[in-house]
Amino acid sequence: MTIVCGTHYNTNQEVRCMDERSETLANLVSELRRGTVVLSVLSRLSGAVYGYSLVQDLSDRGIEVEANTLYPLLRRLEKQGLLSSEWETDSGKPRKYYMRTPEGTRMYEDLIKEWDNMVEKMNTLLEGGI
Length: 130
Description:
Elements: H1 11-34, H2 37-43, E1 49-50, H3 51-60, H4 67-79, E2 83-88, E3 95-100, H5 102-126
Antiparallel strand pairs: 1-3, 2-3
């Protein structure tokens, strides 16, 4: 017999269904957020910022990005010419600072337009509700 979540009153089954739903929701939310990381990072790099402070800044603004996600992204954006970096070794611990290049700023502006367009379309799509 297949038990569909929410239709059976066995407490253990309900808990398992809620756990499965929560896990599915967490995975879907993670996918939604993944698409916003580049825009989030570019938004914070108008000036020189080092990696850990970028993680903290994004976190303070409600955008959680793991360091093991951020650093490969920063290297990729630098390779694409959207960021430049510079090592600062004068004060204690060496830190690599990142900032948008002029091309990175143009791309950031283009991405903002795309974001606004997508949000508008999604809002129109979702207006019908459930």
